[in-house]
Queue: 2 jobs
Job 1
Amino acid sequence: MSVSQAPEDGEGGGDRGDPSGDLRSVLVTSVLNLEPLDEDLFRGRHYWVPTTQRLFGGQIVGQALVAAAKSVSEDVHVHSLHCYFVRAGDPKVPVLYQVERTRTGASFSVRSVKAVQHGKPIFIFQASFQQAQPSPVQHQFSMPAVPAPEELLDCQALVGHYLRNPDLKEKYRVGLNRIAAQEVPIEIKLVNPPTISQLQKMEPKQMFWVRARGYIGEGDIKMHCCVAAYISDYAFLGTALLPHQWKHKAHFMASLDHSMWFHAPFRADHWMLYECESPWAGGSRGLVHGRLWRRDGVLAVSCAQEGVIRVKPRVSESKL
């Protein structure tokens, strides 16, 4: 990984600027710390496995980007990645990442990565890296106006608030208890969390503040991009299910493909606003778009994903 300019420490109050008293992020020390086996061959291990007992897609995307980034020079940085999940990952065995140096050009370089388990590919990935090239052609959308993360409940506190509501139906209580039991290496603060009554009339949109747990530091922009790749898959596809969750229960959800575009330097251990929306769902698939905003209003990353969503009708039940 290379050292490159990232946003200043302290940019956007309430973010971590000093490693003293703050543990190094497990995303750096464990999840994205690949073991080199040979030239362009790496082994990745698992930190957090979802209740589905399939590998978390964001982990595979992040680890693949780590492997690809190790094969390019220090003066180029990822600007886009595109990938397909072709088989379910097995959490009981490590993942091998094979890097192909597809093209190394003067301005752009392309790397292809294949993730393998049990001798078969489970994931196919391509990333393009670019040398910094200033341009007068610049624009971006405006960041939504939302409350600051310091004004919002964290995920655990919000779940506790819901669980204390006597009107909460059991179908929601089970899912919330499952969320509370998860130990994910990222922090979430939901913007405008719905009330119990609003759960039955939600739009396919959500926004939440997100950051890596622990300290990463300002120096290594490549690592921040890898951490953002991990973060980008969390709760992303679920956006497409929001208008339907009161009538249907998902019994199978899985990412099919995932794309990211990196626009500006950022720190993944600082709060960023993740704006997610689903413009379409049908055919047992859902499409979601996402934007990761820095606190100063700069659009840092754009994301898109399509996934499988198979549901069963919910059985009507009395309040518990």
Job 2
Amino acid sequence: MMYKVMAWLFLAQLLIQILRIHAKVPAIIVFGDSSVDSGNNNQVQTILKSNFEPYGRDFNGGQPTGRFSNGRVPPDFISEAFGVKPVVPAYLDPTYRITDFATGVCFASAGTGYDNATSNVLSVIPFWKELEYYKEYQKQLRDYLGHQKANEVLSESLYLISLGTNDFLENYYLLPGRRLKFSVEEYQSFLVGIAGNFITELFQLGARKISLSGLPPMGCLPLERTTNILSGRDCVEKYNIVAWDFNGKLQELVVKLKNELSGIRLVLTNPFDILLEIIQSPHSFGFEEAAVACCATGLVEMGYMCNKFNPLTCADADKYVFWDAFHPTEKTNRIVADHVVKHSLAEFL
């Protein structure tokens, strides 16, 4: 009897897998930084980690996974919206296998950026290495599904790319190296060039449906507001302008690549406006606090400074736009993900 039950469960799981693989978007494949990392940094020798409490306290009943939030991050909600699965697993997580990755995988690394110099700051996975991991994944997928089916999955999957904030806040404006070499406009163009090369190589490897995310209003992150204490902790307008201008350059890149790469379906998903609206009118979205974060004092803490021993962490993260001083709460992630699905990714549904 037990063998029959096990056989039935195996066949049911196989059927679900086949149905997902034949879906319009069979998998969600993710590149980027902490805005989308689902736990790869757990396996990296870096101080930038979040696989401990209170991170993840609202994830499946309280499970710190390495996501920089109290719960899920945007790719999880996007995957769910596309009917794939409720969470996108981290590629380096040893508890997952190719059977899990066949319907979605995350290569992102918290703290990374387009610029290799950015990933060096906190010794995280550089952006180019994420693409090397993707090439490994392609081979594994072909071994698992066969070349024809794997190639179909790879071409029909939705690729999410989200990074860039660290290039400015953890590199350009924090360390002198890049500022001595580039004006901010030149640095923006330098990063856009890297983004263009990455997307072109991804296209050459078989990707067709690609979402490139713009920057948030990074001057309104609680950590940046804290550094602006002489102005009453207002948003740092200079950083918001840089983000806005950079997003404009990314939009120009999208137009350029769509003209150059026949068959690519490339969109810019821009979180800037919806996040700024939430920050400026938090009560309209059911929040009570947008200037400070939930964890610890909410002014400067993230990573190891945001830990379970701090008695100041809020009781209800849903009242806060930000979880730590750099990252949104699960509730904010859900709102932003719903927004980009409806306004940018709808063509892929």
